[in-house]
Amino acid sequence: MEYETCHMKILNFGSLNIDHVYHIEHFVQPGETIACSSYNRFSGGKGLNQSIALARAGADVYHGGKIGADGLFLKEQLEKSGVDTRFVHQGNTPTGHAVIQVSKEGENSIIIAGGANRCITTDEIADTVCTFAKGDYLLVQNEISGVDHIISKSSEMGLKIVFNPAPFTPAISNYPLELVDIFILNETEAAAITGLTHQQDIIEQMRKQFPNAEVIFTMGAKGALFVKGDIEHIAPAKQVTAVDTTGAGDTFIGFFLASHMCSGNIPEALAIATAAAAMSVTRHGAADSIPTLDEAKAFSNTH
């Protein structure tokens, strides 16, 4: 994959969080108090994770978002990873944060406090989006305020809209989803959007509801599925021993989009994205677990 010849930009308007990660024997039950075996503070937020994944996969990525004074290290980490941070604003509200439980099986349970992520203004959105041009990409998740406005404004500017509806909230039903060009979502989010539970029914409903959109279903240990009209591509997951699944979906999204934007080769994009996601779950942390493009390529070739 030769990213040097790709001149498309991607604006990732997303969350910036401080992750407080606790490794525990099992998830805390109601009324229970347990001790953790270890505690770490990491950079996080779906937005930050996906921007770093995009950058490590070779994309020309700009991050839009908001932090408090306590989150300046997040901006610095983005910059060290090659992300343009000119659209990261600083406000008076503390930076968003997450409390993450990681079980001995490597599964996670997450509580998010929005903080500055929920204080993004319409002026900040307009000033950011208007810098980009037709054919550039917008990526947005659902951890910040103003998502509906970001999608609408970006569509007016001719950007290709990529939406990762995570975490799912009822408000998503009122977003202008008809403007979305690419959905990347897991089984839970797809079920919530369609109101259905059976996988094949969900796929057919997404086809019917969004006939012009590309839909990528991330299915964890079962891999990933691409659907557009009658076209389908599936990529099986790489078999690894997981130690921490935090950020695996974000890694997949960044690597898939970086490849998709520049080559348009869907099977190739799925393959490199599943390899990168598999590598990420063998490491602790979210942003800190994201591999480089060379690492993901080497892993893909040997697994």
UniProtKB/TrEMBL annotation:
It is found in: Cytoplasm. Residues 10-292 form the Carbohydrate kinase PfkB domain. This is Ribokinase. It comes from the Bacteria. K(+) binds at D244, T246, S280, R283, G285, S289. One of its GO terms (cellular component) is cytoplasm. InterPro entries: PfkB_dom (IPR011611), Ribo/fructo_kinase (IPR002139), Ribokinase (IPR011877), Ribokinase-like (IPR029056). GO terms for biological process: D-ribose catabolic process. It catalyses: D-ribose + ATP = D-ribose 5-phosphate + ADP + H(+). The keyword NAD does not apply. Belongs to the carbohydrate kinase PfkB family. Ribokinase subfamily. The active site is at D250 (proton acceptor). ATP binds at N186, T218, M219, G220, A221, K222, G223, G249, D250. GO terms for molecular function: ATP binding; metal ion binding; ribokinase activity. Catalyzes the phosphorylation of ribose at O-5 in a reaction requiring ATP and magnesium. The resulting D-ribose-5-phosphate can then be used either for sythesis of nucleotides, histidine, and tryptophan, or as a component of the pentose phosphate pathway. Keywords: ATP-binding, Carbohydrate metabolism, Cytoplasm, Kinase, Magnesium, Metal-binding, Nucleotide-binding, Potassium, Transferase. Its EC number is 2.7.1.15. Activated by a monovalent cation that binds near, but not in, the active site. The most likely occupant of the site in vivo is potassium. Ion binding induces a conformational change that may alter substrate affinity. It comes from Desulfopila aestuarii DSM 18488. Its cofactor is Mg(2+). Substrate binds at N17, I18, D19, G45, K46, G47, L48, N49, E143, D250. It holds the Pfam family PfkB. Requires a divalent cation, most likely magnesium in vivo, as an electrophilic catalyst to aid phosphoryl group transfer. It is the chelate of the metal and the nucleotide that is the actual substrate. Homodimer. Pathway: Carbohydrate metabolism; D-ribose degradation; D-ribose 5-phosphate from beta-D-ribopyranose: step 2/2. Gene3D superfamilies: 3.40.1190.20.
